[in-house]
Amino acid sequence: MEFPFDINHLFSERVTVLDQNLAAGRKSVGRPDLQAQITTVIDELGRASAKAQQLTAPITSASKLQSNRHQLYLLKDGERNGGRGVIVGFLKVGYKKLFLLDQRGAHIEAEPLCVLDFYIADNLQRHGYGLELFDFMLQHKHLEPVLMAYDRPSPKFLSFLSKHYCLTESVPQVNNFVVFDGFFLNRSAAQLRKVPPKKPDGEIKPYSLMEREVVRQEQKALPWPFAPHLSPHRSVSSPCSRSLSVGSSPSRAPPHPVHLPPAPGGNRGQNPQSPHIDSCRARRTSSLNRSQLSFH
Ligand code: ACO
Fold this sequence. Notes:
Elements: H1 7-10, E1 15-18, H2 32-52, H3 62-66, E2 71-77, E3 86-95, E4 98-101, E5 107-110, E6 113-120, H4 129-141, E7 149-151, H5 155-165, E8 170-171, E9 177-180, E10 192-194, H6 211-218, E11 243-245, E12 257-259, H7 275-295
Parallel strand pairs: 6-7
Antiparallel strand pairs: 1-2, 2-3, 3-6, 4-5, 5-10, 7-9, 8-9, 11-12
The protein binds acetyl coenzyme *A.
Residues 49, 52-53, 115, 117-120, 125-131, 150-151, 153-154, 156-157, 159-160, 163, 261 line the site of acetyl coenzyme *A.
């Protein structure tokens, strides 16, 4: 994504982490001109991401970033555009308090780091940039992808998670977030709080408040589960057939089944301790080491 200003001047690092302050290093602090350029970049990316996901309104913008405790990882390619650089994409994450269901259907309160928005420029997708950005974030947060929650992941993102991190088996939820097998296993008891079963119905919010929800409310449409056939439930029962039915909010296009390519060797019915997952981890670890090298 090209801009009419020098991206390399604005962002010195290949990956820049932005937060509420919208500051890319010290250079942009107290510089309204540079702050305006950063705002332009974020707003443009947010619009492109919404378009790619068929959302009717962006869930990422500079003003939203300023008013939330989210972090936005921005990836540039400094060599393109005659040396002025281009923005390749972004990944937005943030902590959310969620009420989740574990494998046995018990209500669990957790506050995981969530992937809220993720976009790589259309012409640069499937070139490994998404993986580079995601791996950077994982290293920065010292986190494993299985411990994260995913806000209504798109079919492309589900395929990405399956391919790169072997995340295929999700635990069905009644909200828009997707968590995978191992989310509840690999987390310390202190991070998960069982919600007392005797609570009156109204006390457990079926949704966490989230930006996609706000977008939806802005559209004044009935939220799931009141809107029929829009359940965000998604459970990948067979990674080999990989027929993922991804529910869609009214802010997205109508749901359509997505057929993912089978993983190399297939991994039907395997658990997180399986040899396939181990080999996947080994693959990812060596890749992480590679990217660690490239970032230092
Ligand atoms: N169709 C299906 N799978 C895809 C596609 C596609 N068009 N593009 C990427 N993928 C998945 C595949 O698993 C692919 O592997 P393959 O080529 O062997 O099939 C893998 O991603 C490629 O990995 P990367 O090259 O590292 O990923 P990329 O740079 O394309 O980034 C991303 C992935 C961010 C999902 C990108 O495709 C994108 O921006 N898509 C449009 C926006 C989107 O759907 N964002 C996620 C929203 S949901 C959320 O943010 C919670």
